[in-house]
């Protein structure tokens, strides 16, 4: 007589099915929000409207996100892996290649990114997710500018990284009216120039400069006649 295989408990199967359904529902809501932002600003979306777009009940939308701010944070976490903005940066000699790799990804999600950038919850959430990424980028820059201290490298890193991120892409496209090709070219040129300027910069010690108090100007006293 063949042995019967042990069957998993029924409640475990049910829990797995519920988890899969909950994940699918959340994904449907996120996709509906992303599609909405392709042609509408973030200010026009409410959770009841999102529920209608996703084909679920309003309580389901509130259970998943609670508030629109929470929805925007969830959208940021959802789209982040698709942008490549947390992938390790290459060595400084190849930093100019990053805009060409990332800008097409930004264009693919442009409506969603514009909505996220105007969200009040985005800036604080972003700063909590980037510490290790920035430290790694600074290590890379030390190879091209070993004569600079940590603070000076951080000052240089800001503008270099900015040309590989959605706000700069959006500014080049929306404010200056560049085409996708022109925006990529501008970002490549700017990144090359900034890295070259960093390598040629003189040694500095920004920590000492910032710690040195400024002397107050002395007023000349006039003698009384």
Detailed description of the structure:
The protein is an all-alpha fold and 225 residues long. 65% of the residues lie in helices and 0% in strands. The protein contains 12 helices and no strands. Helix 4 crosses helix 6, helix 5 packs antiparallel against helix 11 and helix 8 crosses helix 9. The longest helix has 27 residues. The radius of gyration is 26 Å and the shape is elongated.
Structure, briefly:
The protein has 225 residues and is mainly α. It is 65% helix and 0% strand.
Write the layout of secondary structure elements.
Layout (H helix, E strand, L loop, with lengths): L9 H27 L10 H8 L3 H8 L2 H16 L14 H11 L1 H8 L4 H6 L3 H12 L7 H13 L3 H10 L4 H21 L5 H6 L14
């Amino acid at each position: 007589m063949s042995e019967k295989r042990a069957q998993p408990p029924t409640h475990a199967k049910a829990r797995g099915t519920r988890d899969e359904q909950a994940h699918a529902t959340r994904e449907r809501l996120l996709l509906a929000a992303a599609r909405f932002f392709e042609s509408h600003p973030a200010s026009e979306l409410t959770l009841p409207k999102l529920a209608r777009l996703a084909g679920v009940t309003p309580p389901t939308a509130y259970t998943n996100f609670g508030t629109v701010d929470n929805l925007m944070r969830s959208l940021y976490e959802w789209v982040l892996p698709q942008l490549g903005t947390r992938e390790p940066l290459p060595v400084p000699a190849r930093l100019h290649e990053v805009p060409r790799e990332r800008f097409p990804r930004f264009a693919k999600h442009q409506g969603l990114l514009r909505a996220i950038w105007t969200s009040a919850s985005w800036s604080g959430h972003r700063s909590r997710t980037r510490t290790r990424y920035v430290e790694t980028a600074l290590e890379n820059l030390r190879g091209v500018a070993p004569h600079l201290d940590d603070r000076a490298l951080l000052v240089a890193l800001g503008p270099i990284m900015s040309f590989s991120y959605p706000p700069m892409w959006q500014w080049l496209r929306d404010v200056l009216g560049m085409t996708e090709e022109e925006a990529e070219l501008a970002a490549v040129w700017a990144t090359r120039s900034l890295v070259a300027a960093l390598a040629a910069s003189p040694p500095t010690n920004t920590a000492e400069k910032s710690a040195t108090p400024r002397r107050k100007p002395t007023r000349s006293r006039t003698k009384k006649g």
